[in-house]
Design brief:
- There is one protein chain.
- Helix content is 26%, strand content 33%.
- By secondary structure, it is α+β, with helices and mostly antiparallel strands.
- Helix 1 packs parallel to helix 6.
- The N terminus is likely disordered.
Length: 360
């Protein structure tokens, strides 16, 4: 093996030296601030183990309500329905509450009294202007239950409703775009229904062409395979910003467009992707909904990782050592080069002297 360092080794050495110099020039306090941006403000807002920390530790779902007599109240009852939804309290003091259909109910700032006795929310509009402030007594606040009390008439505090919330793993609505949801997993066609909700066999000619394994890459490319793992089609894809439609542009191996298909999206969540096929645009009352669910089926055309040569592993290990001890190795390489040049010069001098002696 040549003693000359490879380009990758030289790059590693240069990078290691540059990084060391850069780190030495950065004050420790500044480095810590870069690694943990905003830590101080978060700690000030939510102290570990405090009632505020408990509220912010999970998302909450309204799961019940009882009146002053302990009698259950239906969540659809007008007396409590306005307080029902999914609630998300951030450690930085922001909150968002959604209706159970995932539409935004309100947003703004929140605070819990240090002794856990009250919760305050300041609802704000999209521009940040305050809409209202609401302070409610907290009945229970643990990691398993959050219940606050609503008193409709402050002049009659004996009449109230306790709104019960429990932890939920319901993802906050709107945190992922429709496109991101579609690209977040691979999909398998697992069902189909017609316009009357009647199941249609996946082998039925009306739907069989839409059955397979689908892979939507974040870069906008897609590949769909038949269930026997043969490639059905590939190309580019797009989902409307509001999640209403999915568009695919199928392309051949050279990249030429074969066709474009736009379908309405019926459902798009992390658990289901269903789009609608309307065979005859002139008769939209006849359609088929093609249902997909997540799959862990590996993409058929994904190549297996290339075997790693042991020699390459050894080179990588050497590069790691070079990066770790860059200064010493660099000095050694320079010294070796000087010695080699010196030795080569000495040999040349002796050869010339011998030729002169022989000629004389």
């Amino acid at each position: 093996m040549s003693s000359r360092p490879s380009p990758s080794r030289r790059r590693t050495l240069v990078a290691a030296v540059a990084l060391a110099a850069a780190l030495c020039s950065v004050p420790a306090a500044a480095l810590a601030a870069e690694q943990h941006p905003g830590t101080a403000s978060v700690a000030a807002a939510v102290a570990p183990g405090s009632p505020s920390a408990v509220l912010a530790s999970t998302a909450w779902e309204t799961t019940g309500a009882v009146d002053q007599d302990g009698a259950p109240v239906a969540l659809t009852d007008p007396a409590v329905s306005n307080f029902v939804g999914w609630a998300y309290y951030d450690e930085d003091g922001g909150f968002r509450i959604y209706n159970l259909d995932d539409t935004l109910k309100m947003q703004g700032d929140w605070e819990v009294a240090a002794d856990g006795s009250t919760r305050t929310i300041v609802a704000k509009d999209a521009s940040g202007a305050t809409l209202f402030t609401r302070v409610v007594p907290i009945v229970t606040l643990t990691d398993a239950e959050f219940t606050y009390r609503v008193i409709p008439d402050a002049a009659n505090p004996a009449v109230y409703y306790d709104i019960v919330h429990t932890p939920t793993d319901h993802a906050e609505p709107g945190t992922m775009s429709p496109s991101a949801v579609l690209a977040s997993t691979a999909w398998e066609t697992t069902g189909a229904v017609d316009q009357d909700g009647v199941p249609v066999a996946l082998t039925d000619p009306a739907v069989s062409n839409f059955v397979g394994w689908a892979y939507y890459a974040e870069d906008g490319a897609f590949r769909i395979y038949n269930l026997d793992d043969t490639l059905k089609m590939q190309g580019d894809w797009e989902v409307a910003a509001d999640g209403s439609t999915r568009t695919i542009v199928a392309k051949d191996a050279s990249g030429a467009t074969l066709f474009t298909r736009v379908v309405p999206i019926v459902t798009l969540t992390d658990q289901e992707f269903t789009y609608r096929v309307i065979p005859d645009a002139a008769n939209p009352g006849v359609y088929y909904d093609i249902v997909h669910t997540p799959t862990d089926h590996a993409e058929p055309s994904t190549p297996a990782p290339a075997p790693v040569d042991e020699t390459e592993e050894a080179v990588e290990a050497e590069e790691g050592e070079l990066a770790a001890t860059g200064g010493e190795l660099h000095a050694g390489i320079v010294a070796a080069a000087i010695a080699a040049i010196a030795a080569g010069g000495a040999v040349l001098w002796f050869r010339l002297r011998r030729r002169a002696r022989d000629a004389g």
